[in-house]
Fold these 2 entries.
Entry 1:
Amino acid sequence: MTDWRMALVRRWRTRNEARAHTRVLVLGDSHVRVFEHWWFLWALPRVRWHIVYVAGGTATGLPNPQSATRARTRFDEALAGPPSDLVVINLGEVDTGYTIWARAERNGSDPRAAMAQAVQRYAAFITEVARQHRVVVVGAPLPTLPDDFVPGDDVGSTRKSVIHSQTKRTELTLAFNASVAAACAELGVPHLDDRADSLGADGKVKASWQRTDRADHHYDRKTYARWLARALHPHLPAPRR
């Protein structure tokens, strides 16, 4: 984005935040940075977004406040901050894309067992947050990296160490999201799953949801932002009087 466009977006964001009537706290891994996209200023202009993202944050590591990423500590600090009308949570892609496979490999166990543990820990966190906050959970993004991708950085090299195919990784992600959705249903917490729009007929993520400039485990930002804005809109609370 050019400098003048960035300046325009900043002015637009400042104006919208001054007029906002809804405050949404977003907690998650690097995938929640999509909420920084300008599309939300257009589609949901009366929302002030407070985004707390932890690169590499996992559902698996949530019980450990001293984890390398300190995800739980940072999330708890944000939750204890200014009141929010809605809390959006999005974790699990790092688990299904790397952590679950690595733990299973290290322990010589079934990846589904490591997945079940991650789901249990995630559900416990969601339960705790939902006791005091209105919550919406967003499903973990599907794998975008093909089997033959060439790593462009350390994160890519780490993902490349997972020897399982994109198909297998996608199947695990779908299973993870289905299990989390079931836990959310029991809690009465909405769970937003993009598979109906992002999953292609071949059982892999559609090309339109992938970044075209480089191999990246994140969705295409504009495509994802448009979907999220539509999916979240019905769950936003009514304006406070």
Note: The beta strands are 22-28, 47-53, 86-90, 135-138, 191-192.
Entry 2:
Amino acid sequence: MTSVLYDAPGPRARRNTAIGTTVALVLLAGVVALAVVQLGANGQLDGEKWGPFFNPGNRYFTATWRALGVGLGNTLVAAALTLVLALAIGTALAVLRISSTPVYRWLVVGVIELLRGLPVVITIFLAARVLPEIGVTLPPLWYLVIGLTLYNCVIIAEIVRAGVAALPRGQSEAASAVGLTRFQVLRIILLPQAFRIMLPALISQLVVIVKDTSLGFIIFGFSEFVRTANTVIQFFGGQEEINLPLQAYTAVALVFILINYGLGKLAEYVQRRSGRASRSAAVAVRAPVKVGTGGG
């Protein structure tokens, strides 16, 4: 089948693509092999160094993962709190932007654009440094949650607004015709459908939130997953006089990959279920029409 986006490659283009891919894979394999050789020469591949993280029979394995588990728990708690707060505040911002008068709408848009333009590390830093200066003293976990919420709530606001904008205009017009206010139309009709449409995007945003929790290292006194791994590295460097940053951060990276891969698959599953539900609803709506037409 001919593509409408680009010309189908001919025999020469396919051959050149295959050659380029093969060369790139060979070069990549060479770089990986060179890295493995260098790591082996420096003793980084010794089983003793990987044991505390990947060998259950190692005497430090249980203690290492008990410590890392505390940091991972803090990371997941921060991500869950951020998602709940960002979802609530983001939904409120989306509703205000859609239903407000033009004067107030520009104020909401200004807040959204301001927070969207700030790097997330800056919002975390501001929460951790500014709030104590004005007398707001909170547990370190909440400084991270507030910083992440400030950034992610405006992203979620745009996701929700896009979901509402994707719905047919006839629904809101019909609801307004029967006397519903704009807020009632949003609350009863549009928002439930928008959340169902944008649920995969919201789950994908959770992946971003989980990764951004690693920026909690800038908050003094908060032991998230990456900082806990750094503490474990310092322990082995001081007590056992062995340097394990490669092994520790590899373990942390694998845990993050597993969590985010699972969330990504969950988003794909939700998207497939939503697609099947939409097709089933469309068939259910069309079916009476076909029956009525056939009986005429």
Note: The chain has ten helices and no strands.
